[in-house]
């Protein structure tokens, strides 16, 4: 596996920079015979799209996805069926204000990849962060939409569960609230609190971190593989590859450090339908790297947006000390738009393991 | 990449079960010309070895490693030089009490991989957990020892920083304390507290979780690669593959969710020696997936040992409900022995990225 | 490695069908800082382009390549520098006469992939052969042009050495003849013979096979790796992946079967410049899977174009026996246009091994 | 994929040198539940084993294989069932006469990998060729035996079809002859001719090349995948990785260059059983990189053994010109023992594609 590819049998290779002509991805290994409409991809892209509320960057991108290969067009407009060959998806960049970035072309923005790209590659595309821009994640969301079609009985849902120090009350969790607010918040009572807080952050030209939770329900038991393709490992890898993510946990996660063996054990019984069931899900749906059939629960922490309006000390590529105040259009909390991205990474990872398991064990389908 | 292999240019494939004749690994891609003594591998294995104190499992394994290939023996005894061909390392299993496991051959131990292995594979090696046993991690420690030799200017050190609810006082951090106590604890004041606590846990037949911190110092800036080979992503993947790990974080990790952009920014200046330096290291040594030259800091959470002496409800492979009390020899806190394993995974991952970067950019050496 | 990707550090993923909107490739792992002009890619595409002479298909494609990512535009028009991020290249399909293929939508053309695709995938893109069309090879030629830039001191040249039973006289070999005729023939005396023969074949609606030889000169000794990344193995793999190729050989190839050890040995002496040299090159520049520094010589056999105007017996997808006469525009000898494709595969493979060797041994640059 | 591993879902990693303590391989991805007896692996190793006749090297190796992991021992002695975890196989080296190689420790044997290993790695294990020795192929034969168990309905058989200029008469082909002579010759009339010829070669201290043909019967249609995992490509890659192989061809192979489209077409009809059948098999069982259901036919050319008793000119590692006469025990025709190796590589490759296809399409089982 390499730099810009993830997955093994359901493989996604992404390409493109923030301010180039387009971004895109190639999905290799998608099974044949999967029918989808373009709108089924587009709807997920629209959830991640910038400019949707005052809490996210005001860059305006249509994020209209095109399917360039790997499908047969069906009689209905924008309806396709996969052929088993690589699916090339492309999104043209339309709203590129390269001039915004002129003055930081030579200065390293703290918290950004400017310095490290220059050290590694000797040069970088400074326009909008180039390849290190979160714009790349649009292609992951598109790939995730295809992955969902591959697993029609699995739901992949995400929510923002913490913004700064404000955590949701898990007892208020209501999935139907997610689409009622621009923050992917499942706790209706928390919404106004977060909104006021984020308004303050935005007006101050500041930013703040967040935590996202992603849950996959309906995943069959038996996916994943010891030892270096553990399902939790691959999910962690996928989530950690999202821009600005600094931590990932499964099930109890870091809280498990505080538990005893008795508290953490997920006991088992036989359900009324005669099938095994777990009495709890501290494990987050994964034991020994293999899915248990319980919901798979992952959380990831996103650092505050590095681009802020406060002057910070930094250096430029000539080794001069400078002070830098990032302009341009940015998200006060990149964690918000990370919700559909996290769902997509979870969907792609589980689709990949579904195919791998079918290959190795022949159990499924 | 596949089920039992990790790494790309420095590739490690492990094999073996807890109660088979041996366990081992093959290291593929190690550069030629690296000299080492067997004792330099053995000393890390000895740190991980069971039976070292009353806080870890009493299984007695010599864990004596043999080098079967990939080296030329040197004139001095147990001294070798790598040839660039695959290095096969083997550790024989000596203290296997298979009878201990007889009665759980058909019952699923809560928190273990018994159920999921049976679902996936239709059968499993129940003796000591088979492939899902942490015994496999001995081979990682051996591979990590070779990786360290490849990067002589980098130090990889780990410490236990939390046991149950007891966290060390970071102001007391003293690396030299690590080897003065059997708990890899860098805080001398915390050692007796943890010891008393773990004695209680052990006597109660219970177990508890923990958090390990691993730090790599001396890593050159520029290692890692966007987008799906981010250094933090690959470290997270490696650490999450360790048995019982439920969470991984880099630098500020989950705390970053609570910070503002101003608080989290690592500002830069030019040091007295004329080279760039960072005024803080919230990023944990990685920006945009690429190393900054600052120490790389990772933490991971380990759940409490699942094998406890308290009866728990579970089922057996015939779908019968049973109550199970795990016997055998086990660790009250598997987090302790996870310290050298975490170091090894960090070392292997960074060695791999060192070679990858040298391949792609030709910058190093 | 997967279905539509080749290479390890210099990785090429291709996508696209004959009659979709476009074809393209993503080159992942290209080192940063390589300057090139678009015309340096285009010139190789033009060599492979259909419609160049009466001996190749009359499909008219501009084959104009676009660079969508992975580069910084330079001040000069159509001049770029690579950034180390994935390079996305796209070629739009312009001359698609899908109607030509209407009647074979349900019939399996003998020698084509129609039947096997249908068995495997349950459906196929019958328009122009879909993904199985040699049109995909245009993207390889584009990737090969980038690979050449990475290795400025290596020349990759190919020639047609056999058409049907007519083999060139190797004593007449003159590389400068290659561009003087439309058949990539290095033997001026053979050109009129082949032209007459191919005219006959073309007029008869028939086709014929061919053999291509590709030579890389200037490859440093030491590239390639035992055991499953042998340089000859990877070259064979790359060449065998070209449509219609049925055999590959290195150096003496199948002739080696007839030689004795004495005849086949490449003896060594020290040259006047003090460096090792070989007195012959039966090995084709590779020993033990590793380059010797001598020219790397590979040949591959291409079967006759399967599309011919003679009626052949076949079946359709309903299991009915039918007789089929392929219409459409086709090459009487696909071997001709395979020359630049073979060069490209050789260039990509050697570029990949150059980076791999630099990664593992740090010898080069 | 990397240096010492082949396969994707059925992955084989080999390790070991000619004169180290042992050689071995790790098979990762073998499905669970496959029962086998040790003798079923051993019998293939015995076919490849040295010292079986006067026509092969007189090195005496028991080549006794041990299974170290990945299986559950069954009640019957030496009977096992696979568990889905990595299968580690080991063969100890017993007859190592390192002293034979003393004088060539510093000299480069023509046709061997001595020079190229030294250039690449800066040092090498000169004892018996180290890693470049064909001894490594014993581990492939062991892996191939497991692959055969995975595909019980497929037969993998090989034969020697050419020794020097002497080719078998294909009309005499009789598989039952293969085990009646020590040369894997399917043509009883050719056996005495080859024996006399090889006796002469052996007595002269010379060697000669050969051609091996391997046929897989019973492979279901639909295995393989466009574009860079074509079944013929992967078979070619596997066969070309065998020591001393210089050419590979599928079906008509190089002869296809001489055929017209009419001659080469494999026409189709519906058989009496209602299933599609081909009227010929010029394609060697593969169209568009995907199996047709017809026998898969591959041939490969092996160069003459490089170690001969005639003095040859060469250089040593100090750059001095020397004359070298290789001593030690060697095969007059390495092609003979290549037969079971070719079968093994074919079996592993097809097993891998079987699992891959099952993963991607879910068609099989």
From TrEMBL, chains A, B, C, D:
E.C. numbers: 4.2.3.5
GO molecular function: chorismate synthase activity
Binding of FMN, residues: 131-133, 243-244, 288, 303-307, 329
Biochemical pathway: Metabolic intermediate biosynthesis; chorismate biosynthesis; chorismate from D-erythrose 4-phosphate and phosphoenolpyruvate: step 7/7
Keyword match Nucleotide-binding: no
Gene3D superfamilies for the chain: Chorismate synthase AroC
Cofactor note: Reduced FMN (FMNH(2)).
Annotated keywords: Amino-acid biosynthesis, Aromatic amino acid biosynthesis, FAD, Flavoprotein, FMN, Lyase, NADP
Binding site for NADP(+): 48, 54
Regions annotated as coiled coil: none
Family: Belongs to the chorismate synthase family.
Protein function: This reaction introduces a second double bond into the aromatic ring system.
Protein name: Chorismate synthase
């Amino acid at each position: 596996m390499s730099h810009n590819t993830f997955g093994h049998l359901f493989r996604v290779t992404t390409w493109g920079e923030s301010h180039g002509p387009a971004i895109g991805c190639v999905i290799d290994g998608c099974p044949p015979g999967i029918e989808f409409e373009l709108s089924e991809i587009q709807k997920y892209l629209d959830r991640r799209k910038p400019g949707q509320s005052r809490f996210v960057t005001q860059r305006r991108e249509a994020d209209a996805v095109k399917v360039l290969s790997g499908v047969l067009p069906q009689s209905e407009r924008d309806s396709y069926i996969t052929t088993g060959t690589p699916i090339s998806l492309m999104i043209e960049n339309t709203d590129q204000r390269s001039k915004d970035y002129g003055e930081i072309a030579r200065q390293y923005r703290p918290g950004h990849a400017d310095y490290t790209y220059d050290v590694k590659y000797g040069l970088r595309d400074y326009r909008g962060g180039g390849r290190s821009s979160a714009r790349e994640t649009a292609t992951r969301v598109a790939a995730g939409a295809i992955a969902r079609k591959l697993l029609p009985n699995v739901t992949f849902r995400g929510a923002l569960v913490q913004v700064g120090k404000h955590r949701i009350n898990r007892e208020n969790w209501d999935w139907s609230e997610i689409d009622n607010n621009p923050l992917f918040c499942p706790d209706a009572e928390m919404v106004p609190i977060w909104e006021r807080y984020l308004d303050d952050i935005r007006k101050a030209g500041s930013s703040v971190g967040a935590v996202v939770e992603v849950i996959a329900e309906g995943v069959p038991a038996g996916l994943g593989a010891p030892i270096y393709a553990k399902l939790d490992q691959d999910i962690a890898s996928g989530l950690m590859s999202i821009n600005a993510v600094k931590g990932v946990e499964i099930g109890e996660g870091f809280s498990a450090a505080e538990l005893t063996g008795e508290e953490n054990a997920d006991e088992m019984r036989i359900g009324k339908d005669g099938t095994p069931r777990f009495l709890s899900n501290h494990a987050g749906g994964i034991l020994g790297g293999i899915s248990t059939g319980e919901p798979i629960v992952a959380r990831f922490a996103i650092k505050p947006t590095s681009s802020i309006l406060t002057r910070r000390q930094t250096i430029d590529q000539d080794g001069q000390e400078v002070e830098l105040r990032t302009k341009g259009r940015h998200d006060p909390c990149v964690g918000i738009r990370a919700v559909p991205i996290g769902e997509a990474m979870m969907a792609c990872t589980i689709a990949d393991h579904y195919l791998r398991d079918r290959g190795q064990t022949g159990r499924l389908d």
